[in-house]
Amino acid sequence: MPLRLWFNQAYRGTYQQIAMLRVGAAAYRLALHVTGSHTVSSTPFLQACDEAFREPERITGPAWVEHALQICRERQIDVFVPGRERLAVAQSQDAFEAAGVRVMVSPPEALRVLGDKALAHASAQALGIAVPATHVVTDAAGFRAAYDDLRGRGLRTCLKPALDHGAAGFRILDETAGGWADLQALPSARVHPDEVERRLAGQGTVAPLLVAELLEGAELSVDVLSRDGELLAAIARSKAGPQWTRQIVDDPAATDIAETVVKAHRLRYLSNVQVRYGEGSCRLLEVNTRPASGLHHSAAAGVNLPYAALRLLLDGDVDVPAPRYGATVLVYDEAREIALPF
């Protein structure tokens, strides 16, 4: 009987992660049957699945958990890798385990704290981890005071929601933005601070926003495998190389930050720690308590992190080879004809 996995409303890089799972499983003669689900039939990762189905759109919290448990029973799921409603699933992990389903998810408190950038920064500072200079604001007056403070200290600045995904709300605050030259160029993330203040004034109070120092140094994304707070592997991918590439690098400062976060929040399985250098120091940007969309780039280090995480979930332990550093990975898209699953 194949091991039956379910990925629900997963992230962009799940297509490649499923391929890595299949490679690892084939090497050990483990048969996999992968089910995928989403509200959108054209979501790419569904093409990597053996079967796919449409998710309901308006179920949340405990109702979603009950729905997911029913799916697991009906489809005889052995391993559930949640994307949607991960916090609700993590809070109900005992119910899944009672139903014979292993769930690949970190502890609920880690998801709650690290899913909010403001809380994550506060936690990092309490742990002695350096972060960019940051203010949390909810209105126009707070924004202006925060911006003026950072600019008065000679810092470039940016704006981001405390809760977001995929940097959708990230903006660089730039007093030269909005001129004629911008109309002759591709749209960018630059926005004039006066425009932000004007829009905030029209909204009154908004969900928390971070007005933060914009770091200028190398940015690294650290793919992490861990077991209840114990770091088992950390592979750093740098964006500092040529255009369209990532570099697999050995960066002890970035790894130390990742290890401190993993230990403090008892992270499990796959997660991702993003850091950036500024003024000579490595500082934490954010922590994803799930695999990064670019996790498959780490295969160039000679480590199959998705399959290692699966073995860790099933066996409680896994041997991970030492990463190979120095590889350059070219990042590109491919196109092929498909049939939509639903």
Summarize this structure as a short list of keywords or feature phrases.
six-stranded antiparallel β-sheet; 32% helix; 16 strands; alpha/beta; 342 residues
Low-confidence stretches: none
Summing up helix and strand content along with how strands pair, one would put the structural category as: alpha/beta
In DSSP terms (H or I, runs of 4 or more residues), the helix count works out at 11
What Rg, in angstroms, do the CA atoms define?
Answer: 21 Å
CA-CA gap between termini: 26 Å
Could you tell me the strand content as a percent range? Answer: 25-35%
Tell me the strand order in the biggest sheet.
15-14-11-12-13-16
The averaged pLDDT comes out at: 95
Shape: globular
Bin the helical content. 25-40%
Number of strands: 16
H and E string: EHEEHEHHEHHEHEEHEHEEEEHEEHE
Largest sheet, strands/sense/barrel: 6 strands, antiparallel
